[in-house]
Amino acid sequence: MFLKKTAQSEALQVGLQLLTWIGLQGTNRKRIWRYYFIVGWLLGNVILPKALLGSGDEGFDSLVRSLAEMAFFSDVCIAVGIFVTRLRHFERMVQILKEIFDRYETKECVEEIRRFNRRMDIFAKSYIAYIGMLVFLFFIPSIVWNLYMTIFVSPAHRSSYVLLMEVQYFYLDIRHNFVHYLLYFVLCGAATLCSAYQSCIKGTIFLTALQYGAKLFELLHLRISRLDEVEAGDRRREELRRIIELHNMTLKYTELLEETITFIMINQVLNCMAIWCMFMVYLSSNYGPNGFNVAVLFVVFIVEMVVYCVSGTHLSENAFKVGSAIYHYPWYLEPADMQRDLRFMIQRAQRPCGITAAKFYFVNIERLGILVQASYSYYLLLKNGF
Question: Which of 15, 237, 329, 333 could be bridged to 204 by S-S, CB 3.0 to 4.6 A?
Fold first, then answer.
């Protein structure tokens, strides 16, 4: 449904389709029960059993894995839950994005916008395919290993079943009883798919919206750099007026994007350090099918955080280029009223522009380096202490 080819790509098309299917977008909000079902299923079959009953196995490694998995699956629920409370900002952001694109009327800009929309459409669909591939890899070790033990290993020599995730599942003997394990696998497998769906929403909405913000500043920079080609007089005056208007609208888009995902980013950053260091502790001493499952979750969180930081850096850099371009333009030769408007534009462009984590710091490559260092330090503390 979401990977089908479309005749005309539009902004955030794939992400909006995902939201529409669960009733968070569009006119048919009666489907919102699907969103509550997805969240409820994940809570009831993964997060609550882990929180109330523990891992079901003794040992520090088992505890670390259980806590890391609970943090991982909780993160996606919290992120999408925060997003639901910010839907009003998001809908206004999408509206402004479309209005900005409508104001780029030249053939070159229109073609560039269409190409970028197609590129973002491919990115979103590729992200969904990437998550689908990781879900498949997440299931494979448990299926293959447990089938091998069931068919080729006698009950007397059979070890415990390999679990999708470390959990005591409602007092069922999921480590040795095949019927209990099969019930657990179906229900927790469905919960994993619910988590994957919410991860797709994060990728196709948050990551794509960041890249659209960077593109808006890039288009604005292109328009400013070609001001000299516009005939002096009324035409240039009109072009300057449009540039100022587009700059204000682009800043408004960025502000709404910030309002939409700033608390999602602080949740992402805080969970990042905890999840990375706990996964590294587990992977440093556990191999085989269990280690492979943990590695898959580790890869999901690493790639997600890297793309967030790279996109945030790209957005900030393009915003800085706009300020630099207007600063080097001979604005002092324009009429007095235009000089005043351009001066405000220059002053605003001097302030850093980007996405922050709850207003504390910008999400960028520098922050990624700090997170990696902090996570590794906590990993060493846990590894040496236990």
Answer: 15
CA distances from 215 to 11, 104, 222, 245, 351 (A): 12, 13, 10, 16, 19
How far, rounded to the nearest angstrom, does the alpha carbon of residue 89 sit from its chain's CA centroid?
Answer: 17
Section 152-163 average pLDDT? 75
Contacts of residues 50-59 at CB distance under 8 Å and 24 or more positions apart, as own/partner, are 50/165, 50/166, 50/167, 53/167, 53/168, 53/169, 53/170, 53/171, 54/168, 55/166, 55/167, 55/168, 56/166, 56/167, 56/168, 56/169, 56/174, 56/175, 57/166, 57/175
Task: Classify the C-alpha dihedral 372-378-381-386 as positive or negative.
Answer: negative
Per the DSSP assignment, residues forming a β-bridge with 356 are 362
**Percent of the chain at pLDDT above 70?**
94
| pTM of the predicted structure, to 2 decimals | 0.89
pLDDT value at 98 more than 90? yes
- List pLDDT tens digits, range 159-187: 778 888 888 888 888 888 888 888 999 99
28: its two tokens:
């048919």
CB-CB neighbours of 359 under 10 Å: 10
Among residues 85, 93, 84, 98, which one has the least CA distance to residue 24? Answer: 84
Separation between Cα atoms, residue 219 and residue 11, nearest integer Å: 15
